[in-house]
Design brief:
By secondary structure, the chain is mostly helical. Helices cover about 80% and strands about 0% of the residues.
Length: about 180
């Protein structure tokens, strides 16, 4: 419910539901289950902090959640946290760190076969480097196309193909950056 309220812009009620959820999580006896819930609540709280432009506080919670998801082997959630960390870093002006976090999330998503997260991270990288390295944008769009095609996602592959065509006029630079 907190997430729904946050998405509707009702941050006060989102906060209230998160407080109740944290109280409930504290009552869970099983350590593994409690850790999973607490980590998910950290992520939800971080999203709420991001809505309030409290990025440094959000980063702290996201780093804790990232470590917990990594320790638990929860790759799907770990991938999503990378994108949130990257958005926070980008918002506070640390573009290089944001790019590195998007790349890490993209790599994990590709390895896990998670097309949506791969696509999201790739689009975010493209947005970051669009002006500085349009050729690399073409390369990244091509990789999006290949990934979509390899999973039989023909509509998504067409979207990536169109994005590739936007960058057709750019030629390979002398030194190429690798984003894998």
């Amino acid at each position: 419910l907190a997430s729904l309220h946050r998405q509707d812009g009702d941050l006060i009620n989102a906060d209230l539901f998160l407080v109740k959820a944290r109280e409930t999580a504290a009552c869970i006896i099983d350590d593994e289950q409690r850790l999973e819930i607490v980590s998910a609540l950290q992520t939800s709280t971080a999203k709420l902090l991001m809505e309030r432009a409290q990025y440094s506080e959000a980063i702290s919670l996201l780093l804790e959640a990232l470590q917990a998801f990594r320790n638990a082997g929860d790759t799907e959630r770990e991938i999503k946290v990378y994108a949130q960390l990257a958005r926070c870093s980008e918002s506070i002006g640390n573009v290089q760190e944001a790019e590195e976090l998007y790349i890490a999330g993209r790599r994990m998503a590709r390895d896990a076969g998670r097309f949506d997260e791969f696509a999201q991270n790739t689009k975010c990288i493209i947005a970051l480097i669009r002006d500085s390295d349009p050729y690399q944008c073409k390369v990244l769009a091509g990789e999006g196309y290949d990934f979509a095609l390899s999973y039989g996602l023909l509509d998504k592959a067409r979207e990536w193909h169109e994005m590739c065509r936007l960058y057709d006029k750019y030629t390979k630079p002398e030194q190429e950056v690798v984003y894998d």
